[in-house]
């Protein structure tokens, strides 16, 4: 339900909401007058119902920042909700991926927790106690201690797994993990913050009864935030560093979905703080060619702790008075504008689709002459011919892209084969002997808790192939704008409607053309959105293929123990890379090309099948079927469409 009387709703946002509501009321009035027993009527009713239930992926903004940088306070200030999220100022910090979005259904504060399964947690416990048994004074040991004491309290790390199984907490955890999700819903914001704290925060100062090790991710839904977050999700991305592949995979997948990134840093350390910048540098591929990030913003917090004049002099910053105290309103405006733009796009699409469906209904209403059948057959034949021609041209353009991409990949394979062994040797860095086993156990990747050590053998092996395709990949799959060669632009060029006024003397065919053109436009827009998701899989398939090819080697290396294990693991990795390099990199190339070809086939199949269905629906009907006169409703939608073009 749209809350048009919402005091937080600005005039433009409310105007779009009112237009959407009016369009839906028109759709409902038309649907209520259609007969459910008639096949064509049922098709119309189905299309109208689908319009009302459309769902789009929300825009995701990723938020980086280490513990104590003020992320919780920043979010609370932006959303106008004091103490919305539990603060990490007292030695605690966010431990899991936390999403914040609007609650559009009621006035409660809701947290949806995605939990590890019993099997996943049992495996995690085995890994924790294996690390603890080695009694090493390194980061892996610290992480294991932190996890087990977070749940069981002080000295839990000194007990055996069998001893912990006798603890009442063990049975409580098993019961807790008997479901995959847990939901918390309360009306009071302070109570809500207290209730969720133990699931998303870690605290070394008061161990015990912190459940974050059991949680994969948390989605928090906030009421009264439609204007800012109706179509946006804010994602707090903590450091990885706990060597849990499930959390790491979720972290990376969330990063790839970010359309924007905010780096939150204490103003005193904004320039020198290496943590968020280091992680971004390492993940630039997940944000760019392998993702959809359009902007990166640095947000300085705790500005009240400094003397502005002294800070400006010390950092040699050019002072611009208009920047004073405008940060929070500016961020709110950014969210508001993004939200309104998405809402405007959704509203415009809905009105245009409604016009198309009503044009089809009106074409049947006007079909009173049996001679029209002959005209329809001629129009169908012409559109079918146009469809074949357009598909052939699209196929040719895709084949050109395929050929150019193959050349880039071939050069990348050649370079990778020559340099991969050296790349494997060069991954040895500070403290490597302490974490090599963890890297192997984690499928070739290790991220330290504080982000200061990032080791990823798979990324290192994929590096040269990525370097050779990056420039061309950004041409065919740009994050924003046009390049003249992008897949999205090839889809835009496709059309079976040759002219907006192909049938000026026939009102019936004019309405049919409007319907088909609307269907084609909506279909192309949907396919272009799908391309954004598919291109991420295409790009990441290089590294994924390498991970799969190296997986058995990682397992074998992780199992090596005893004297000289460090050297044995290194030799095993280097030997394996050298032995499988030709096959591995060529498989990666083949996988990229296969996924691109699958994308082409999916696009062509969707265009052909959906447009043929629309043509059949609109042009194969006889004059025996009668529908209501919707000329008045079409005029209403035209006026709504004009309002949206202002």
From TrEMBL:
SUPFAM superfamilies attached to this UniProt entry: P-loop containing nucleoside triphosphate hydrolases
Domain of life where this protein originates: Eukaryota
Protein source organism: Culter alburnus
Protein name: Dynamin N-terminal domain-containing protein
Residue ranges constituting the Dynamin N-terminal domain according to the UniProt record: 61-274
Any one GO molecular-function label of the UniProt entry: GTPase activity
């Amino acid at each position: 339900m749209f809350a048009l009387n919402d005091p937080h709703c600005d005039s433009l946002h409310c105007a779009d909401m009112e237009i959407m509501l009016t369009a839906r009321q028109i759709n409902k009035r038309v649907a209520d007058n259609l007969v459910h027993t008639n096949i064509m009527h049922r098709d119309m009713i189905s299309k109208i119902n689908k319009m009302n239930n459309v769902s789009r992926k929300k825009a995701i903004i990723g938020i980086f920042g280490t513990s104590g940088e003020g992320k919780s306070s920043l979010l609370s200030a932006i959303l106008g909700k004091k103490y919305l999220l539990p603060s990490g100022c007292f030695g605690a910090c966010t431990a899991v991926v936390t999403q914040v979005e609007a609650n559009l259904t009621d006035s409660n504060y809701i947290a949806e927790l995605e939990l590890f399964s019993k099997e996943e947690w049992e495996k995690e416990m085995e890994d924790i106690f294996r690390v603890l048994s080695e009694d090493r004074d390194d980061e892996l040991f610290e992480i294991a201690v932190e996890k087990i004491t977070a749940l069981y309290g002080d000295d839990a790390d000194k007990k055996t797994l069998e001893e912990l199984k006798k603890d009442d907490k063990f049975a409580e955890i098993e019961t807790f993990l008997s479901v995959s999700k847990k939901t918390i819903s309360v009306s009071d914001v302070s109570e809500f913050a207290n209730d969720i704290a133990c699931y998303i925060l870690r605290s070394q100062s008061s161990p015990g009864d912190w459940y974050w090790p059991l949680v994969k991710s948390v989605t928090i839904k906030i009421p009264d935030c439609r204007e800012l977050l109706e179509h946006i999700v804010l994602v707090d991305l903590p450091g990885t560093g706990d060597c849990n592949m499930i959390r790491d995979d979720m972290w990376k997948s969330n990063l790839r979905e970010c359309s924007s990134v905010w780096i939150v840093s204490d103003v005193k350390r904004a320039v020198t703080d290496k943590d968020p910048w280091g992680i971004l540098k390492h993940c630039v591929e997940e944000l760019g060619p392998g993702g959809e990030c359009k902007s990166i913003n640095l947000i300085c917090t705790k500005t009240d702790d400094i003397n502005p004049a002294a800070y400006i002099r010390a950092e040699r910053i050019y002072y611009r008075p208009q920047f004073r105290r405008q940060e929070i309103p500016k961020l709110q405006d950014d969210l508001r504008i993004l939200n309104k733009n998405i809402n405007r796009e959704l509203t415009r699409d809905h009105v245009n689709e409604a016009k198309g469906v009503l044009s089809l209904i009106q074409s049947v209403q006007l079909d009173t002459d049996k001679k029209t059948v002959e005209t329809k057959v001629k129009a169908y034949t012409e559109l079918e011919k146009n469809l074949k021609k357009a598909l052939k041209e699209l196929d040719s353009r895709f084949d050109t892209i395929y050929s150019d991409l193959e050349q880039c990949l071939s050069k990348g394979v050649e370079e990778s084969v020559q340099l991969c062994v050296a790349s494997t040797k060069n991954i040895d860095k500070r403290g490597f002997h302490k974490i090599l086993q963890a890297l192997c156990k984690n499928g070739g990747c290790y991220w330290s808790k504080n982000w200061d050590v990032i080791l990823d053998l798979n990324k290192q092996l994929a590096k040269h192939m990525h370097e050779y395709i990056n420039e061309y990949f950004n041409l065919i799959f740009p994050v924003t704008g046009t390049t003249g060669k992008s897949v999205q632009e090839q889809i835009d060029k496709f059309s079976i409607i040759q002219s907006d006024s192909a049938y000026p003397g026939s009102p019936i065919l004019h309405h049919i053309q409007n319907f088909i053109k609307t269907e084609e436009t909506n279909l192309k827009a949907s396919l272009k959105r799908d391309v954004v998701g598919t291109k991420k899989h295409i790009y990441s398939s290089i590294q994924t293929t390498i991970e799969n090819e190296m997986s058995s080697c990682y397992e074998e290396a992780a199992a090596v123990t005893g004297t000289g294990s460090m050297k044995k693991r290194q030799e095993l990795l280097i030997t394996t890379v050298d032995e499988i390099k030709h096959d591995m990199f060529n498989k990666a190339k083949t996988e990229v090309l296969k996924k691109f070809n699958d994308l082409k086939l999916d696009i062509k199949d969707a265009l052909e099948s959906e447009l043929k269905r629309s043509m059949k629906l609109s042009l194969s009907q006889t004059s025996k079927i009668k529908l209501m006169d919707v000329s008045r409703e079409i005029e209403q939608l035209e006026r709504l469409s004009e309002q949206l073009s202002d």
